[in-house]
């Protein structure tokens, strides 16, 4: 019995923290999972409020096709025209959609990652390179299906609606009601294939880079703590890697979820038409604003999440 107890591995430990850090919550595995959901939701809400304007600009530029309907010459022109026409808070149109979706997205992402880790973890409590990629991929695919696709579809439609002279949506629930009434429940699942590809690759890349950097920093010493600023730095690097790895997928996803998605027969048709009419550089539209958002996003997500879990472990027994 003593041998088994000594070899016990906590399957719910966070991959970027030591087992004695923020992940090692009191109260058992179930408590850790619940704390992860709540902490992830709080972290997501803070992150979204800080970084949403860059997400808004990125989406506007990706929806801005070449030709007579092109509205913006670049990032600053988009910000200037948005603020002039709709005020500063025009940069926050669609924010409520992401706020409503942050808690279930975090719950699915972390829950699936930790469950997948149960099957992939090695005898010494670590993940192989294949395991890191597989667990991240599973988390990304799950969050794409259960949270991100409907949330992102509604967000893109809200932002696209604002581009019209007379916007139709009066608020979150009114907009969702109109979308479902006109397009059915499938109206909030436009671009699900592209979203699965995007989120799957996102999380596979981020968890792989984050886990690898953490292992490198620890140098084989699993008890070595990782300072918060190092966690943030590693998170930013992981975020940047994911941007360069899947921005083309993000562009296709955005167009498949826009108000003009009907002109594309499928995700592949969107890819072909974009390449044919606008060239390969079109797949990297919005890279700069997306890069600035994602690097900051992932950095603060890991850092704030770690800090919140520290507090929870102290006050939530």
UniProtKB/TrEMBL annotation:
Its main location: mitochondrion. One of its GO terms (molecular function) is citrate secondary active transmembrane transporter activity. It comes from Papilio machaon. It is a multi-pass membrane protein. PROSITE patterns: SOLCAR (PS50920). One of its GO terms (biological process) is mitochondrial citrate transmembrane transport. It is found in: Mitochondrion membrane. Coiled coil: none annotated. Belongs to the mitochondrial carrier (TC 2.A.29) family. The keyword Lyase does not apply. Solcar repeats lie at residues 31-119, 130-216, 226-311. The keyword Nucleus does not apply. Keywords: Membrane, Mitochondrion, Repeat, Transmembrane, Transmembrane helix, Transport. GO terms for cellular component: mitochondrial membrane. This is Citrate transport protein.
């Amino acid at each position: 019995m003593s041998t088994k107890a000594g070899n016990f591995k906590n399957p719910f430990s966070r991959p970027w923290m030591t087992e004695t850090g923020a992940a090692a919550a009191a109260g058992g595995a179930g408590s850790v999972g619940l704390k992860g959901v709540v902490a992830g939701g709080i972290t997501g809400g803070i992150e979204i409020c800080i970084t949403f304007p860059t997400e808004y600009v990125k989406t506007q530029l990706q929806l801005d096709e070449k030709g007579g309907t092109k509205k913006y010459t670049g990032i600053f022109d988009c910000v200037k025209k948005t603020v002039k026409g709709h005020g500063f808070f025009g940069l926050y149109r669609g924010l409520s959609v992401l706020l409503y979706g942050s808690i279930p997205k975090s719950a699915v992402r972390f829950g699936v990652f930790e469950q997948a880790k149960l099957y992939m973890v090695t005898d010494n409590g670590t993940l192989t390179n294949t395991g890191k990629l597989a667990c991240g991929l599973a988390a990304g695919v799950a969050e794409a299906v259960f949270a991100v696709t409907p949330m992102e579809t509604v967000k893109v439609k809200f932002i696209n609606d604002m581009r019209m002279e007379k916007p139709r949506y009066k608020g979150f629930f009114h907009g969702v009601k109109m979308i479902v009434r006109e397009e059915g429940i499938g109206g909030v699942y436009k671009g699900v294939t592209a979203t699965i590809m995007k989120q799957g690759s996102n999380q596979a890349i981020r968890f792989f880079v984050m886990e690898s950097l953490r292992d490198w920093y620890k140098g084989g010493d699993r008890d070595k703590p990782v300072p918060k600023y190092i966690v943030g730095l590693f998170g930013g690097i992981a975020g940047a890697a994911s941007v360069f790895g899947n921005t083309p997928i993000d562009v296709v996803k955005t167009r498949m979820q826009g108000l003009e998605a009907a002109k594309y027969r499928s995700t592949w048709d969107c890819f072909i038409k974009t390449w044919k009419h606008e060239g390969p550089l079109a797949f990297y539209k919005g890279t700069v604003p997306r890069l600035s958002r994602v690097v900051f996003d992932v950095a603060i997500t890991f850092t704030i999440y770690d800090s919140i879990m520290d507090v929870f472990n102290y006050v939530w027994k």
